[in-house]
Amino acid sequence: MLGASGYAGRELCALILRHPALSLAFATANDQRGTTVRIAGRDVTFASPDDARLGDVELVFSALPHGASKEWVARIQEAGARAVDLSADLRPGNGCEGIAYGLTELNRALIAGATVVANPGCYPTSILVALAPLAERGLIAEGGTIVANSASGVTGAGNSPKRELLFAEVADDFRAYGIGNTHRHLNEMRATLDGWKANADLVFTPHLLPVARGILSTITVPLTRPLDDVLQPWRETYAAEPFIEIAEATPALRDVVHRNVVRISATPLAGTRAPMLLVTSAIDNLVKGAAGQAVQNANLMLGLDETAGLPL
Amino acid sequence: MLGASGYAGRELCALILRHPALSLAFATANDQRGTTVRIAGRDVTFASPDDARLGDVELVFSALPHGASKEWVARIQEAGARAVDLSADLRPGNGCEGIAYGLTELNRALIAGATVVANPGCYPTSILVALAPLAERGLIAEGGTIVANSASGVTGAGNSPKRELLFAEVADDFRAYGIGNTHRHLNEMRATLDGWKANADLVFTPHLLPVARGILSTITVPLTRPLDDVLQPWRETYAAEPFIEIAEATPALRDVVHRNVVRISATPLAGTRAPMLLVTSAIDNLVKGAAGQAVQNANLMLGLDETAGLPL
Amino acid sequence: MLGASGYAGRELCALILRHPALSLAFATANDQRGTTVRIAGRDVTFASPDDARLGDVELVFSALPHGASKEWVARIQEAGARAVDLSADLRPGNGCEGIAYGLTELNRALIAGATVVANPGCYPTSILVALAPLAERGLIAEGGTIVANSASGVTGAGNSPKRELLFAEVADDFRAYGIGNTHRHLNEMRATLDGWKANADLVFTPHLLPVARGILSTITVPLTRPLDDVLQPWRETYAAEPFIEIAEATPALRDVVHRNVVRISATPLAGTRAPMLLVTSAIDNLVKGAAGQAVQNANLMLGLDETAGLPL
Amino acid sequence: MLGASGYAGRELCALILRHPALSLAFATANDQRGTTVRIAGRDVTFASPDDARLGDVELVFSALPHGASKEWVARIQEAGARAVDLSADLRPGNGCEGIAYGLTELNRALIAGATVVANPGCYPTSILVALAPLAERGLIAEGGTIVANSASGVTGAGNSPKRELLFAEVADDFRAYGIGNTHRHLNEMRATLDGWKANADLVFTPHLLPVARGILSTITVPLTRPLDDVLQPWRETYAAEPFIEIAEATPALRDVVHRNVVRISATPLAGTRAPMLLVTSAIDNLVKGAAGQAVQNANLMLGLDETAGLPL
Fold it and tell me: What are phi and psi of B241, to 5 degrees?
């Protein structure tokens, strides 16, 4: 894999090392090349990206930074390998349409046959998987506004040393960022909602939590009509899904950390003129929000059992 | 004061003890009566409520639990004292209209002349102070939906020993609660918005943060028209207010903890059909959200300098 | 198992449910009887202890409170089952000598043949496993003083709702407790050191950390002579042990949480007259310090692979 | 002041800005020069050290990094100003003997008349203030070993962006560092103990806590004889000290954070051959452990009330 030294990169290394059918051919990390770290009980020495033997492997995971990934995916393809790219570069709404978007449960056929898969962002995974059952039933009110507030653990911001991510800066604090609908993940979500013909506005505000892992998204959705059985759309759409959990109680981070699941609940909102739903959705940003879904997609692409090597 | 053993009660004791013009006549705590605790460098022995000499004091603060406060406020009035009640019992929308509602900056005249003031809830303080400048200018779109997501530190849930508030239960976690517009504070906010003729729906979802103190509210507001200068409504309304801070940058908990302020920012939301604003508002739930505002109200009622004894 | 509702009890339930060769016949919890909780992806309904069919099982784990366990172990024996008792009741130094003490790596033969095993305390596990290689080589200076400072995550204090364990009380804090050599685990450690003929004093001071899990013990040991190869005693004694890790670098909690290991390092202390060693030792208090070691002991007693069902 | 951008530097800026008799002439921070930050409700723009007008002020605080401070103190003296240096450069045991060591309560006369004061390290403040009453009474056993284990909040490690200080690295963790008696503060403590004729070995092991602020030191001391009244040495030595608190109960971080105090308790250790004492001592590493004590020393040097501007 390429770009193995970040939090998502290491999580992915660990999943590959523990995977029954995958083996780790190389793990690159340009600024830490030559460094040996302990991952999943094994010593992993980071290689220079230039030493990555792209042609010797069936599939390359890239967790390179946004902007740097695109050209590497081209090289991977030239070398004849398939690619799962964890960056934003190739996701819908980012100027590279036509690449399979790796929301596994929703794009399975496309992913299985793809040579390149754009692995979704962590926030979009938590929000789009939660919205899809409403969208596919035409339940989202035309012209309404979906308001998604998400809060993420700090690993979502990466492990480059930045002052604002120091323990003493983050502890005991909570703040919004990317305010005013400016976060990078917004394009990806809007393009996907458009693809689903969900003709609603989306307001998205991420927040930084003083925890290491996990995302909780709290989403209000204007409906076309009240629902009799509020959880039924999710129960139907995701009936056979091993990695989607529909819960009566609103999910918490502790329900999902270290697991490759999206846990979703929904409840009607009392006292509003038009019918509205409160949908809550929790994931581990490093697992279902990044490395876990990447492995899930790779399993599909390689014809393996989709659940192979993934923590339930 | 009555009900001094909770987090808000102790914070209030500390403020009274440090106040230049107030002195603490008694501090009751029924289940901890006889216990001596150290507050603000002084020994405070909790008395039985039955031993509270209500008639000997000018003003009684009550931080008794919701439900229990109402009858005590009646006794305080019978004894000839004035009261600041921190419970929800007498707040607007809770069946006891006509009591002065202690959002100090917005109800100053009423509070100054009142014998009983219903001190606002912590969430309503953060949300209503943020919304008032929009409401009073008629800027909130008729029939639109205000979506307020708040996240609070754990002291907001009190200090009664409950399993779900243990450190090992709360740490590393984040969850919504009071979902579906069911939180006790909703009535108080709706009644106040109605009073302001803000004819919009309100969706309110509180969350529990793994921090001790602080509330951040992230609020989307549908507007009647775009604003040229987005902060101008707050700058105008709160021009001379010592306890309201208008900030360019979105506020964080660390900007406000241990201080009697509401810190507010606002930014337009890009990419929505109708104009919408993102308003963020931060307070310390125990200070401006409870004990601090109670002292601010008492200062007004007693003809003292409104800022006396309050931490800026 | 008996006493399944505490933190160690639930951890043990989870290990049993995931164990390849064990199955959970019953899980009692007197004050939560009838309650169903989700453990390891399964619904577990707590039974009344009176409904526990002690005679129908091969082995009973008891995680009952100290004091209550002793009589239940007698009942288990009468019913013809074997027992692993996680309380302090039957451990050495507590008035019930002759019971096999379940420091697995050090008492393997005794444990394998025992009908009752007293599972060690969490602190003693971290300290005694670290000291044994020095004691068995006669390296601890006669008449010297071993100083053991330990810091534990909050789950070590159990999950009964107590005010001092609330999030807002523990967060951002650190304190010693059981000071002056008064902690319950001291007897168990002294009796064991005596059994090893380690004729040294022991000073033990536990501390409460604002984390959920993990114990780090920092131990100074007066030596009879300087060591050429400081880690050699541990490397030799624990050469073939799957659950003991000897590390060059001083261990941290994150090296051991959720794993059934003791991780140990040692370094000479510069600038002291007589030779002294600093030994650091880390465990997960709920795994190797409680439930994990209990399963390890049960595996031995039942003739199973000692590592079966244990997280490395 | 020089070196104002670190955690101690900013704390010191804040104390100066709030001080009734001091004013802040300049605040330098070489790598952040030109940056304006908000400190104590005021805008502070960091200057280049080259622009510091050392000759225009009475006293300069230097919080420059270790190694860089020494030459600046020389420049300050040449410019005719007095200096309080917060680095280790001029402290006892570091090659620059003869400089007044700023343990205020213990060296008052020397400090009052000094032109340069070496402000003590945070760990030494917590440990030496705790040991002095025993040392001055000759109560520390000749040739014995004092074992000091300290745990510090992360601000003690500074605010330079380092990967190992990121939130996701520090949270939920606890580890020792500077093991084997190698920490920089050891020289300073040994030299001071030698100066006190306390002829005992010292073992010092610092630890990193997942909290922002505070140091707790847990110290075992071999005594020449048992004490009848265990707290009496401290009560006598520090009888009139406003910034030293002697407590029956072992102190916790929350007792001292944001305050310029050392809080000390002591208890005899049961079950040891020779008499030993457990002494616990807590400070705020940024206040009494750095900026607060620096102001306390400056107050003395400038003939001001020693408590001026200091948070009790």
Answer: -85, 125
Bridge partner residues of A45 (DSSP): A36
Q: Report the residue from D41, D172, D312 with minimal CB separation from B172.
A: D172
Per-residue pLDDT for D148 more than 90? yes
> ipTM for the complex?
0.96
What residue in B sits closest to C5 (Cα-Cα)? B163
Q: Which pLDDT score, from 0 to 100, does residue A96 have?
A: 84
Q: Which of these, C245, C242, C251, lies nearest to C309 by C-alpha position?
A: C242
Structure tokens at D81: 């100003």
| Torsion sign, CA atoms C23, C29, C33, C36 | negative
Catalytic residue among A86, A111, A122, A186: A122
Contacts of residue C295, defined as CB under 8 A and 6 or more positions apart, other chains included, come to: C12, C15, C16, C19, C22, C260, C308, C309, C310
Rounded to whole angstroms, how far apart are CA atoms D27 and D9?
9
| Chain B residues inside the 8 Å CB shell of C212 | 167-168, 171-172
Q: Phi and psi for B252 in degrees, rounded to 5? A: -125, 160
Concerning whether D122 is annotated as a catalytic residue, the answer is yes
Q: What is d(CA C105, CA C84) in angstroms, rounded to the nearest whole number? A: 16
Domain covering D7-120+289-301 assigned CATH 3.10.20.70 in the classification: no
CATH fourth-level superfamily of B122-285? Dihydrodipicolinate Reductase; domain 2 (3.30.360.10)
| d(C-alpha C48, C-alpha C3), whole Å | 10
What distance in Å separates the CA atoms of residue B35 and residue D103, rounded to the nearest whole number? 37
- pLDDT tens for C39-93 read 998 999 999 999 999 999 999 999 999 899 999 999 999 999 999 999 999 999 9
Rounded-to-integer distance, Cα A23 and Cα A46, Å: 15
Tell me whether residues C166 and B171 touch, CB distance under 8 A.
no
Residues of D in contact with B171 (CB under 8 A): 172
Q: Is A168 within 8 Å of chain D by CB? A: yes
CA distance A109 to chain D (A): 37
Pair B128, B106: CB distance under 8 Å: yes
Residue A276 region by backbone torsions, left for phi larger than 0, else alpha for psi between -120 and 50, else beta? beta
Query: Is pLDDT at D41 greater than 90 in this prediction?
Result: no
Contact at CB, D174 and C209, closer than 8 angstroms: yes
* Cβ atoms within 10 Å, residue C133: 23
Measured between beta carbons, the chain B residues lying within 8 angstroms of D41 are 312
Q: What confidence score (pLDDT) does residue B97 get?
A: 83
Q: Is some CB atom of chain D closer than 8 A to the CB atom of C160?
A: no
The candidate with the shortest Cα–Cα distance to C236, out of C103, C137, C95, is: C137
A168 contacts chain C (CB < 8 A): no
Query: Is A162 an 8 Å CB contact of chain D?
Result: yes
Of B13, B44, B122, B300, catalytic: B122
Q: What would the pLDDT profile of C248-262 be if each residue is shown by its tens digit?
A: 999 999 999 999 999
**pLDDT digits 0-9 by tens, D258-295:** 999 999 999 999 999 999 999 999 999 999 999 999 99
- Chain C contact for D199, CB < 8 A? no
Which two three-digit tokens encode residue D61? 């605080």
Domains of chain B by residue range: 7-120+289-301, 122-285
Question: For residue range B229-279, what is the model confidence (pLDDT) as tens digits?
Answer: 999 999 999 999 999 999 999 999 999 999 999 999 999 999 999 999 999
C45-76: string of b/e by CB count within 10 Å (b at 16+)?
ebbebeebebeebebbbbbbeeeebbebbebb
Contacts of B165 in chain C (CB under 8 A): 161, 166-168
Specify the pTM.
0.96
A51 touches chain C (CB under 8 A): no
Beta bridge partners of A149: A205, A218
Which residues from A are below 8 Å from C312, CB to CB? 41
